[in-house]
Amino acid sequence: MPTDLYLIRHGQTEANHARIWQGYRDWPLTELGWAQARAVAVRLARQGVTGLYSSDLGRALQTATVVAAATDLPITPHAGLRERSLGLFEGLSSAEIEARYPELWQRFRSGDPEFAIPGGESARQRLEQVLACLQEIVAAHAGQRVAVITHGGVLYNFFRHILGIPAATPGHFGVRNCTLNHFQHDETGWTLVTWGDGGHLEGLEA
Q1: Which residue segments constitute the domains of the chain, with CATH numbers given?
Q2: Annotated catalytic residue: which of 14, 31, 78, 83?
Q3: Residue 205 is a catalytic residue
């Protein structure tokens, strides 16, 4: 039996709304973000998930508390599910980053998986931690359905990894807050089942 993982980006935060890069830094959920969390929590309860994991960053844990209440499951926080650390970029908008650090911004935008922003980490470093964490979850919940509350950057890079899309290949695979991203794992590896399922969010978007 395959193991089903539902990977979910946390609810909208004040920084998301203001288009600010967060990384390890935290901003609280907006009113819309809490509504998104409630909607996905109901959806996950209907899916019959038997495990609940979350990034240990505040915005993910806020979202996970809503899911925990709907599913009656304890939350297992894990640093391996954190967003990529963005160092100097954290707390700034794209325009501010480009103005202050134009060379660093261009290197970041190039998609080089080995490039680490000063004070931060590379996409490769973060992906390795995410993959190790997900393997732990699969090993602990073989044949079950598990909800994982994480971040947009984590999902974006995991999606590319599973589909074999090189990090530097241009493309945008949007990760909306609190959509359902369904992956399966069995002896052959990972399979993408559904990406960006937001049917439960209908009527919530601003």
Answers
A1: 3-86+123-199 (3.40.50.1240)
A2: 83
A3: no
Catalytic-residue membership of 83: yes
Token pair 């993408």 in the structure block, residue? 192
Q: Which two tokens stand for residue 11?
A: 């609810």
With a cut of 80, say whether residue 64 has pLDDT above it: yes
The pLDDT tens digits of the residues spanning 98-112 come to 999 999 999 999 989
pLDDT, tens digit, for every residue of 107-127?
A: 999 989 999 999 999 999 999
Contacts 24+ apart (CB under 8 A), 11-18: 11/35, 11/36, 11/37, 11/59, 11/62, 11/63, 11/66, 11/177, 11/178, 12/36, 12/177, 12/178, 13/59, 16/177, 18/93
Q: How far apart are CA 5 and CA 189, in angstroms?
A: 13
